[in-house]
Amino acid sequence: MIYKETVKAMEKGTKSPMLMAFIIVISIVAVVGFCNFLYNRFGVSYTGYIAFVLCIIIGIYVYRNKILEYRYSIIDDEIIFEQVVGTKIKPITSLKLSHVEYFCPLKEEIKQKDKKWDQKYLLLFNKRASNAYVLTAKQGRKNIRIVFQPSDEMVKLIERAKK
């Protein structure tokens, strides 16, 4: 059995990529213009640094919320989590579905105070999303906790494999 799905920050129905690029360019021009105004009007000498930092913040926002994607794949008895940026695919983790200890919606998660996680992964864009799930597993001696956003079909496949 092979099943793959990709979660994107910019879902269908949101602003078009062309409009987003235009807004980003305008915001960078506005930041640089404002910093130049501060320098020319008030003689603030460190406005170049302010513009640089603000452009970096805009770049991080664009990367995290417009370019980055997560791919979840189920191949036989293994679930694979990957980070996708353009054509670059970075494997994050993979684990056997038979090693899953706990799988439920994030809202219904039972907090385990005595449980310590060796690795935690947050592989979604909105923790308050209605379809955010938490999966915990034992991989060797490590306890792993993964918060992700699977589709209804993937939830059924994981629950079926867990039994």
Description:
The protein has 163 residues and is α+β, with helices and mostly antiparallel strands. The chain contains three helices and eight strands; from the N terminus they run βααβββββββα. The chain has helices spanning 17-42, 47-67, 152-162, and strands at 2-8, 68-75, 78-85, 88-96, 100-105, 119-123, 133-139, 142-148. A four-stranded antiparallel beta sheet has the order 1-2-3-4. The longest helix has 26 residues, at 17-42. The chain is elongated.
Taken from the alpha-carbon principal axes, the silhouette is elongated
Number of DSSP E strands: 8
Low-confidence stretches: none
Rg from alpha-carbon coordinates: 21 Å
Structural topology:
Elements: E1 2-8, H1 17-42, H2 47-67, E2 68-75, E3 78-85, E4 88-96, E5 100-105, E6 119-123, E7 133-139, E8 142-148, H3 152-162
Parallel strand pairs: 6-8
Antiparallel strand pairs: 1-2, 2-3, 3-4, 5-7, 7-8
Helix pairs in contact: 1-2
